[in-house]
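hey so i finally got around to running the thing on that chain from the lab meeting. sorry it took forever, my laptop kept dying and i had to restart like 3 times. anyway pasting the input first so we r on the same page abt which one it is
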Amino acid sequence: MINREENPDFLNDFLDYSSTILNKSPNTMKEYNYDINHFLKFIKYKFKMAEMDDETGLSNVKVNDITVDTIAKIQLEDIHAFLGYMKETFHSKPATLARKTASIRVFFHYMCNKTKKIPNNPAIDLESPKLGKRLPKYLSLDQARELLKTASAPLPASHGNHDNATRNLAIITLFLNCGMRLSELVGINIKDIDFSENKLNVIGKGNKERTIYLNKACTNAINNYLQDRPKEGIKFDSRDALFLSEQRRRISNRTVQYIVKEEMRMAGIDPNKFSVHKLRHTAATLMYKYGNVDIRALQELLGHESISTTEIYTHVDNEQIRAAVESNPLADE
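ok and heres what got predicted. didnt touch it at all, straight out
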């Protein structure tokens, strides 16, 4: 939830522009708000308009009183100093710094080019931190099967998730079979599902809608859950939501993360090594490795804007690489 009262007016105007004109998703809006707020706190400190507390750092610095005149004084060096502060103080990784860089770049483009609130754009030459290519972490086929087996096993009445067994299994099944994002799963409405065609529509990054086709495991898991899904007492704004919490409202990201970690723990999988997003990597890797899925089809399924993002899954199969070397006609020479 964005607390607009803690923002200066120009930041709220920027968020409105991003939401309506740029059609950014709620998650992107939260990231913009968080990143720019953090940046403005640092600017107040750097411009000697606020002090840094030894215990809380900049967290208690208020920015709703910062003026456009102050924003107009910001130089590229100030942005670099902020990114350096993030790296040194919070050990921010290149991916985090790249996201903050993108947020700052869009913000200053709005302030200078769209609204002319400031005369110069200090981020015009701002470069994004270089990202080292990392291979995605994913569960092995045996681990994925064990996770599904654990999620589908009857739970004792004493277990906290006993009444939500079919819901939790449906969540795990959709992650492992469809490779959807956390926000996409949480946002599913019952009306988004076409049971006659075995498909559903989800809202992905950039507020873009795409179709995901459901296999037998998914349709069975969803139908079994719908039989147990609460019929009464559902919160008004959650009546359409597919997955409900124990409070009978749309399930939250945090609750889904907890469910997945608990199921992993019971399956003997270290929950500290594999996040919910790793289940998306798992689905993509297993489809590519065992399903002979075309890379373009995989791109469409995952909702990747660029094929280069999907191509990380073509480099993860060490067994195929080893087999290729072994097949060399010179291998036995």
